[in-house]
Amino acid sequence: MAARLSPRNSEVNALEQRGYLIGKKIGQGSYATVHLADYVDSSGPKKMRLACKIFDKEKAPKDFLEKFFPRELEILTKIENPHIIQVHSILQRGPRVFIFMRYADNGDLLDFIKRNGVIPESQAKIWFRQMASGLHYLHSKNVAHRDLKCENILLSRKFNVKLADFGFARFCVDTEGRRILSQTYCGSAAYAAPEVVSGKPYNPKLSDVWSLGIILFIMLNASMPFDDSNLRKLLKDQMTKNWVFRSRVRDTLSSSAKNLVRHLLEPDLTLRMTLDRSLQHDWTKVRKDRSSLLGRLVHSAPQTTRHGGIPAQYIENGQIAGDYANPEMKKSEMRISMDKT
Ligand SMILES: Nc1ncnc2c1ncn2[C@@H]1O[C@H](COP(=O)(O)OP(=O)(O)O)[C@@H](O)[C@H]1O
Ligand SMILES: [Mg+2]
Predict the structure, then answer these.
(1) Of 176, 206, 174, 178, nearest to 193 (Cα)?
(2) pLDDT at residue 228 is higher than 60
(3) Is 165 a catalytic residue?
(4) Mind listing the domains of the chain with CATH numbers?
(5) Catalytic one among 63, 108, 111, 147?
(6) Which residues does ATP bind (predicted)?
């Protein structure tokens, strides 16, 4: 069961003395809660808005504490990239560990899609490119993420993508540079590649690419490609490519976007598009539009508040563009079991 943590008074005081103020809860994960936080540097009055992920070591299971949590901390301290959430500091007090990181003002991608529905193709392309480039950096450091999903993709103030949640991440080469296959079947079933669902040792970098394909599908359809309520059926659907683009987008999506999704959701590992090639794909390749389209528009035009802060370009004649908002989209609760090493 998810542990619900909020900082205790003595901890609040200790953190305040170091300049950290913990605010309201903004996220709940399996073994941690995420709170808003402010940091005031002793050298000046300027406040920095942060998010704080709080773990209680007394409430987490042993395999998590021995395996996943140390990896998350180690990896977080070794990575730095514009498309990966930046860690500000990590503090420990008694059984509690506080990971302070930059706050992503626009929340996570799942909430964004639930509110706004289908992401226009031009914006999906920018976000996909940013995700792929953050992941490319991670893979270049021989780190596989292994839990890529919309809840773990954060959106900054300028609507740029920041990959987050390294709770299942791991190094995928050993000290001699040999490739290590993963045997821990982690992540959410809905985003997990067939080789993960089937329980074979897998190459975690290639499985990350499948998850990226699922995220791209979700951005373009505001729905999931597979039903994950039955793992046997899920695997069969993945292997037989039993999925379709939603009818409302099928005719409007470019053939290039559809082609990329098909190559990412390729069950045959020898045929699945590599990350390098997906960055070079016609649909993804950089043209003029380098930064986030949403960021540029939002910051150059006054934002409408009539629609609960939905960016202006989603609003057409007072309606949410396309009217595709999909509040039915659920968090992917179904986890792959974690009982192997
Ligand atoms: N830096 C952040 N800025 C804004 N929201 C965040 C931030 N970090 C996490 N969140 C929110 O909290 C949720 C849980 O955080 P996450 O790191 O994914 O924890 P868990 O490992 O428990 O899933 C995220 O899905 C997101 O909604
Ligand atoms: Mg998460």
Answers:
(1) 206
(2) yes
(3) no
(4) 9-102 (3.30.200.20), 109-320 (1.10.510.10)
(5) 147
(6) 53
